[in-house]
């Protein structure tokens, strides 16, 4: 039998090694040095495999965590960008609506300012024409009232002053006659402008009582 210590061949049944003198019977159940080295190598391999596995697991966990963090950062960035875009769009919309409202108000004010002189002139001309019509049918009291109303707003309107004087001359009583009933005050113009724009006549006609006279034209002051 071979000695497990010095590898010397001994006769069968020997209890001690002829070379090293060690007990051959005590090593039957004990591990040989080769077995011990093999066991140590196996444990090293197992430890190395476990270490590699642990490193791989740690790397996977770390990569997964970093990936999750990157996704969270990307989501937060997308939300912030979306909120900023929405706020910017709302601000631009509000600014556009405000600019539109201002432009509409400006146009309305300009239109009102442009139409005010025309409306005032039309109101004056309407009363002026009513005064002429009243004088033509002999209603000088009404003619006086209409001409006075026109002159109260525009003292230079067409020939309203001369027509008023002519109507008053007709209504002036002769000596010993009773004075006709002539309104002392005039009614307000129907136009809504409190500060009318005066207009100047382009021609002046002085009618005689009962004469037919066409309507004069008048142009607004610039």
Could you outline the blueprint of secondary structure elements for this entry?
Elements: H1 33-136, H2 140-153, H3 160-171, E1 199-201, E2 218-220
Helix pairs in contact: 1-2, 2-3
Would you write up a description of this structure?
The protein is mainly α. Helix content is 59%, strand content 3%. It is built from three helices and two strands, in the order αααββ. Strands 1-2 form a two-stranded antiparallel sheet. Residues 182-222 have low confidence and may be disordered.
Task: Describe what is shown at a glance.
The protein is 59% helix and 3% strand. It contains 3 helices and 2 strands.
Strand content: under 5%
Radius of gyration: 62 Å
Low-pLDDT residue intervals, each spanning 5 or more residues: 182-222
User: What is the overall number of helices?
Assistant: 3
Mean pLDDT reading:
76
Query: Helices and strands, in N-to-C order?
Result: HHHEE
User: Largest sheet, order of strands side by side?
Assistant: 1-2
Report on the biggest sheet: 2 strands, antiparallel
> Looking at the structure, what is the overall shape?
rod-shaped
Helix fraction bin? 55-70%
Query: From the helix content, strand content and strand pairing, which structural class follows?
Result: mainly alpha
End-to-end separation: 142 Å
Number of strands: 2
């Amino acid at each position: 039998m071979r000695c497990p210590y010095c590898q010397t061949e001994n006769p069968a049944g020997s209890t001690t090694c002829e070379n090293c003198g060690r007990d051959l019977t005590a090593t039957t159940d004990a591990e040989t040095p080769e077995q011990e080295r093999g066991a140590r190598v196996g444990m090293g391999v197992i430890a190395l495999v476990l270490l590699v596995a642990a490193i791989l697991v740690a790397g996977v966990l770390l990569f997964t965590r970093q990936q999750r963090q990157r996704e969270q950062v990307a989501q937060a960035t997308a939300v912030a960008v979306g909120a900023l875009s929405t706020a910017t769009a709302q601000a631009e919309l509000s600014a556009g609506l405000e600019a539109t409202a201002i432009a509409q108000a400006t146009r309305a004010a300009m239109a009102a300012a442009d139409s005010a002189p025309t409306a005032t002139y039309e109101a004056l001309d309407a009363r002026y024409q009513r005064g002429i019509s009243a004088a033509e049918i002999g209603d000088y009291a009404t003619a006086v009232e209409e001409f006075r109303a026109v002159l109260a707003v525009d003292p230079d309107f067409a020939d309203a002053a001369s027509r008023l004087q002519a109507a008053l001359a007709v209504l002036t009583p002769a000596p010993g006659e009773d004075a006709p009933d002539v309104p002392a005050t005039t009614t307000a113009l129907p136009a809504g402008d409190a500060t009318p724009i005066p207009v100047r006549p382009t021609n002046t006609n002085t009618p005689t009582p009962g004469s037919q006279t066409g309507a004069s034209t008048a142009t607004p002051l610039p």
